[in-house]
Amino acid sequence: MSMPFRPFHTLLIANRGEIAVRIMCTARRLGLRTVAVYSEADRTSLHVTQADTAICVGPAAPRESYLNINAILDAARRGGADAIHPGYGFLAENEEFAGAVARAGIVFVGPPAEAIRAMGNKAEAKRLMLAAGMPCVPGYEGRDQSDATLSAAARDIGYPVMIKATAGGGGRGMRLVQDAANMPAALASARSEALAAFGSDELILERAILEPRHIEIQVFADRHGHVIHLGERDCSVQRRHQKLIEEAPSPAVSPELRKSMGEAAVKAARAIGYVGAGTMEFLLDRTGAFYFMEMNTRLQVEHAVTEAITGLDLVEWQLRVAAGEALPTAQESIVLDGHAIEVRLTAEDVAAGFLPQAGAVLCWRPPGAAHGVRVDHGLYEGGDVPPHYDSMVAKLVAHGRTRDEARRKLHRAVRDCVLLGVASNQGFLADCLEHPAFVKGEVHTGFIAQHMSKAMKNICPDTATVAAAAICEVGWPDQDAAQLGQTTVSLDLELGSYRWNARLQPTGEGIDVTIQQGNEVDAMRFIPVRKPADGVWWLECNGQVHRVVRARDSAGIHVFSQGRAWRFQPSDPRRARVKDGGNGAVAAPLTGRIVAVHVANGDTVQAGQSLVVLEAMKMEHTLTAPFAGRITELSAQVGGQARAGGKLVQVQAIAEEQVA
Question: What is the pLDDT of residue 525?
Answer without folding.
Answer: 83
